[in-house]
Amino acid sequence: MSYILDSEIKFLPGIGEKRAALLEKELGIRTFRDMLYTFPYRYIDRSKVYSISDIDSSSAYIQLRGKIVRISSAGEGKGRRLIATLQDGSGSIDLVFFKGVKWIQGKISPFKEYIVFGKPSLFNGAWNMIHPELDPVGESGTSSWPSTLIGIYSSTDKLRNNGISVKVFAKLQQTLLQKVSGLIRETLPQEIISSVKLPSLTFALTNIHFPKDLRSLDAARYRLKFEELFFLQLSLLRQRNVRMSGSSGIFFKKVGDAFNWCYSRLPYELTGAQKRVIKEIRRDTVSGRQMNRLLQGDVGSGKTMVAMLSALIAVDNGYQACVMAPTEVLAVQHWRNFERSLSGSGVRVALLTGSTKARERREIDGGLRDGSIDILIGTHAVIEDNVVFHRLGFVVIDEQHRFGVDQRARLRLKSTEPPHILVMTATPIPRTLAMTLYGDLDVSVLDELPPGRKPVQTIHVTEEQRYRMYDFIKSEIKKGRQAFIVYPLIKESETLDYHNLEEGYQRIVNYFPAPEYITAVVHGQQTNENKAYDMRLFAEGKAHILVATSVIEVGVDVPNASVMVIESAERFGLSQLHQLRGRVGRGAEKSYCILMTGYKLSEDSRKRIELMCSTSDGFELAEADLRMRGPGDMEGTRQSGLAFDLKISDLGKDGPVLAQARSVAAGVLAEDPLLESTPSALLRAGLDRLRQTGGKEIIDYSTIS
Ligand code: ADP
Ligand code: MG
Q: Which of 50-64, 140-154, 280-294 reaches the highest mean pLDDT?
């Protein structure tokens, strides 16, 4: 018998084919379940009404009740706005509408009483409310609602224009809840419900839409967050068990000549953290299981050497290794690095990128097939289908966030035995997010920088100080140092950005005239040869200044550079700024990061800039980024294909729920690692649901193992 929550939404009274199609298109609602799991994003407390004279803070949403005493319009064109003045016994306040002016005009009638909900803001010394919600009193303000906490759902213009206002939507939820009343099946095992002290699913779904009171709402929320995060963790941890239970891990019997050759010639002592991580990797490669390890290390922590030494262990055991980098510039840099460290060792390294010439390409293909090439370094080109390895045993993916899930899966298919995989990232991922995104990976952390690094001094500079800043760069160049000057590159306005860069470049060349000063330039519109040429000029110290778009952000290593200027710094995210800053401070000299912005900054931008100036801790910045922007926006999560749709949890704030959900999930799996037993049927059903809905990408991830 089919389950009522699986019913199509068109069968709900009040929704026909047309509205059903609209709900699916606008909100992704197809079934009763989808509808029930579309939660309010906030609540109005109908029991609390503010007096206008009591408004004293612009921080919170509040409710007012009064009459509209005047309607007027002001401004022209884009600035045109409608102002409705609301009066209660205590005072008056302007309600301001910039959008949908006509529509609002038709909706508001003077001298009627309204309940107004919105966020007060201060303008010219007086309080007003921008785009508040308005309800005529009597229609909804009183007894027709089942509780005093009213859920507010997000809506769209299309829905509103087709008769599904927020209020109608709430009514539909009410109808639905009545229809399924008594028929909702519990999704969590009873033991978990009682040990975590959760309310039932029925209680939670009822109270998330129509809270009886604040306590019930909190309990409902907790239950739904827990459920969401629990199944996510269960899925990730179970995948890990699946991977662990497979016996198919390549066994690297020995550490041999190639490794020892390189190790004994290192120009420096490895840091304690580097040694520890290499040991962890070594352990994985003799465990009989496939390694899937994430290596996190702040910029400059020395991940490359860890990758090289681990790759050499593969080579020592007769396997090939492959290192994948996100950009050509970076692939070339890695290749040079490997060549420099390994020349004379007998280990053969090759470079394969989009601009490898056909003849050379054929040669590489041959060398990969017959096994004479030991280590292949390259960009996305290395995962194309026509690249065939003789015996691939170890894969390094550098700066992982530029690679999609399916690309990793393709790499995995390049070998009959699954190669060990090391994913390296310099984007410090906050614990909560790491747990969620990489719950099925083992994580190593390089938490120690090579000795002698001095913290980079970070300074905020505005346009007026530009030439003083240039003079400062000159003084650094005089000391023999080099400088980066970076411009933002944002896809949507590439031509504009390019224009800015050109302009900036001209200004630099004028102020830093050749031959005294040599300026190199690198950007996305150049040919690869030109890019490589200018990059090399700078890397070899022949150019003093490198003007670049943010292409240089990942991994470029020029230890002699001591100044990083970031133009329009307000347009970069925190972790991107941190990445860029990490390009300097690599040598022994004191280094500087200069954040250029316009004079006027939004509150958010100002906060970011201030944070950058006050801390150099990548993890602290990443946590702040997560709090400020939410995980969906975190650099990297979206591109990685791992971003997913959490309906109610907020990874920035729900760390404790996540931790509890994870520990309960781990407990369940300790008893039944693959969830194969009969009592686990309920949990298997939950995972199936996850697979059908938002968790798709997460599940796909398992194709790697
Ligand atoms: P990242 O982790 O950002 O990829 P790199 O691997 O590029 O860092 O290393 C940054 C710099 O530190 C390089 O110049 C590298 O040669 C140097 N380095 C790496 N390990 C050590 C070490 N143990 N001692 C001193 N310098 C090191
Ligand atoms: Mg690197």
A: 280-294
